[in-house]
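ARCHIVE CARD
CATEGORY: sequence design from structure
SOURCE FIELD: tokenized fold
FIELD CONTENT:
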């Protein structure tokens, strides 16, 4: 069973795992059961091929509210490369013209907040005595490819720079 640190992490995990039958990324689950205990199950048919999809998670008892994905420990179900890719996608959605409408700015603010939360998750994979995420932390196809393409993106220094850029983008959208 998958161990998630929050409902937000559950939702991201599902978004990162397409249908095994047809590759459809969208998963508009139609049923969500909680319990017993800290269990959360999402079920529904794939909108493209109709295959039954199911994700079962155990939610950490000290789950955090959105937009955070978890507490101080790194994820056990999403690797740092997936989080960095998510941060980059969200940051692209946060870029809006200065004259953007109120609703578009609201969406951009949410995206900027998501970008920041995701890159903060990557930093959690850097051990206290290390300067970068260890190669062993990458477990997904996406993560391994992202790491192979640019290992320097996972240094503590570069991650801190990215966090600062996300914070600045969020501040600009809040002003």
């Amino acid at each position: 069973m998958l161990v998630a640190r929050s409902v937000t992490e559950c939702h991201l995990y599902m978004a990162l795992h397409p249908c095994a039958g047809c590759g459809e990324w969208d998963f508009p689950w139609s049923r969500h059961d909680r319990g017993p205990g800290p269990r959360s199950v999402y079920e529904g048919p794939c909108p493209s091929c109709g295959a039954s999809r199911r994700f079962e998670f155990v939610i950490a008892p000290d789950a955090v509210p959105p937009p955070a994905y978890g507490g101080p420990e790194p994820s056990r179900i999403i690797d740092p490369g997936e989080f960095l890719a998510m941060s980059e996608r969200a940051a692209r959605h946060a870029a809006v013209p200065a004259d953007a409408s109120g609703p578009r700015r609201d969406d951009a603010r949410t995206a900027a907040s998501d970008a920041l939360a995701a890159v903060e998750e990557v930093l959690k994979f850097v051990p206290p005595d290390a300067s970068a995420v260890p190669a062993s932390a990458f477990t997904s196809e996406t993560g391994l490819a992202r790491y192979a393409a640019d290992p320097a993106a996972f240094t503590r220094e570069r991650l801190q720079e990215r966090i600062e850029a996300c914070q600045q983008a969020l501040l600009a959208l809040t002003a």
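CARD ANNOTATION: DSSP finds five helices and four strands in the chain. The chain has a mean pLDDT of 93.
SHELF: design records, drawer C
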